[in-house]
Amino acid sequence: MTMHHMIDLLKHHLVQQKLIPVQGELLHHRCAGHVINLIVKDGLKFVEPIVDNIRESIKYLRSSTSRKQMFREIIAREGITCKKKPSLDVITRWNSTYLMLKTALKFRKAFEVLESEDQKYTYLPSPEEWKSVAVLCNLLKVFKKATKVISGTNYPTTNLYFHHMWKIKMDLEEELKTAELELQTTEQEDNYSSEVPMPDQAKLSFLKEMIKVLKEMKKKFSKYWNKSHIILCVPVVFDPRFKLKFVDFVFSKAFPKTGKEKIDRLQKLVHGLFSAYTSQQETPSAASTQQIPRVCSVNNDPWAEWYKKVRDDLRTQRSTELDRYLDEDPIQAEEFDIINWWMGNATKYPTLSCIARDLFAVPATSVPSKSAFSMARRSINDFRSSLTLRQ
To answer: I want to staple 196 with a disulfide (CB 3.0 to 4.6 A). Which of 175, 192, 318, 319 is the partner?
Structure first.
């Protein structure tokens, strides 16, 4: 039985027993660290030969004192002021590889001069390869920041989940759009006069390969995003700095055709969650304890309609705790402790504070940051992989 089948059976059982709200839509969260790791692996797979060249370049420098001295002189000559020197990465940790590539980019000119002055140095990446490293570094920077934030342990991470995954989505789309535009511009050189040089076939091939990899990364992200983006939005609604207005603003710009449908689905989910928690409340809310005037039964009473309106308004107030929260303007705060905010507003929003408590107790990722950055497979040694019989 696979993990997905087990979760489906568990959800079916819990829904039948009425132990989870909204038909179990919030039961299963995909691990953000695992998703990011899968996307990063695809990106690094594309630049693996380039990464090897940079890695060998650093090894080449470190293998000789004279080479180190030559490289220092080149750095001084070229006016490179970066304090961090190129260093080797830990192959099994992609955040370490990112730092190596990021530092190597700053010394690109020095490596190019080294290649012209030292004939034994043969590991210099081509201009197109340097460009691909720059593109990957831009993405890895976002992935690294997202992984560090959602792997935090001293603060809730569920409400931060959506923002970082949205940033990844936007950056992937932007890099893909830029690469496709560059490919289109390069291919159009074929239509110019014969006096204009034909486009470099190596560059065309490289751009096509880069676009292919970016599409693969986007495809992998979209597979996760399409299944999870509405669920990711629910904690954002219960973040008083954003609420439903923020999601509406983002979706209406990013999805002109389907944005309203997504917002309607999110509203239905949030209201269903609120209704489920409201039905579980043991103590009635303050609004429900108010005396509702009885409507006069006299047929021609001129105030009967007024009394009916007052009664309907009071009844409406009993179910508007969520509406009052959503109608209030989002708060503005640079340093914000969301747990303390909900604790301080538990009297004002008793039901919503219970929902927020349960939502923010769920971590965005189920693996520690060390595992989230790991590129290696988990291995079990011979001792732990065997069952020993004890007499």
So the answer is: 192
Give the pLDDT confidence of 169-188 residue by residue, as tens digits.
Answer: 999 999 999 999 988 887 77
CA–CA distance, 147 with 93 (Å, rounded to integer): 13
- CA torsion sign, 89 to 93 to 94 to 95? negative
How many other β-carbons are positioned within 10 Å of the β-carbon of residue 18? 9
Q: How far is CA 70 from CA 65, 77, 152, 169, 241, in A?
A: 9, 11, 43, 43, 54
Which candidate, 112, 104, 66, 56, places its Cα nearest to that of 82?
104
Tokens encoding 324: 């009052």
* Three-class HEC string of 161-195: HHHHHHHHHHHHHHHHHHHHHHHHHHHHHHHCCCC
Q: 60 and 2 share a domain?
A: no
Q: What are phi and psi of 374, to 5 degrees?
A: -80, 135
Can you tell me the distance from the alpha carbon of 389 to that of 170, in angstroms, rounded to the nearest whole number? Answer: 55
pLDDT digits (tens, 9 = 90+) for 195-239: 444 456 777 888 888 899 899 999 989 988 888 888 899 999 999
Domain around 130:
31-190+197-282+330-372
Instruction: Indicate whether this model's pTM tops 0.85.
Output: no
Task: Supply angle C-alpha 230, 236, 239, rounded to 5.
Answer: 160
Phi first, then psi: give them for residue 93, nearest 5 degrees.
-125, 115
What are the CA-CA distances from residue 76 to residues 26, 72, 125 (Å)?
57, 6, 22
Longest dimension (CA), the chain: 107
How many domains would you assign to the chain? Answer: 2
Residue 336 has phi, psi (to 5 degrees) of: -140, 130
Give the amino acid at 320. Answer: T
Per the domain annotation, does 308 fall within a domain?
Answer: no
